[in-house]
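Deliverable D4.2, example record:
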Amino acid sequence: MTSDPFMTVRADLHVHTALSPCGDDEMSPPAIVDAALAAGLGLIAVCDHNAAGNTGAVGEAAGSRLSVISGIEITTAEEVHVVGLFPTVTAAANAADEVRETLPVATTTTRASSRAVPHERRRHGLRPRASGAGAGHLAGTGRRPSS
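Output generated by the structure prediction step:
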């Protein structure tokens, strides 16, 4: 009798936090972890837009209850979004730094406010909610987790 060398894990490999423009204030590291566990997930990848600043915080909030991969959703010059997954928080942060150095600073309006917020400020995590993260696709967006 041979055993199957593979295991099945429910995962969502594209979760945003409050560092992403699509994030909201309820997206804290504990909220991401709680939503993932409630959805029956065993693995998530935190992939903010051009940033990796919350991957470590989500991993710390998860502890041994949930596996967390550090990632980044890179926006190309052609506005294509590419998800990159990394072996460590440091590797993701280094990639985010490199991406940040190549992106132009632009100004947009956030949905929470009518004032302009520079993208650079968001990429550096300087919004008031930057210390929070969230259940990106898991909560509040209507998207069901991947199986």
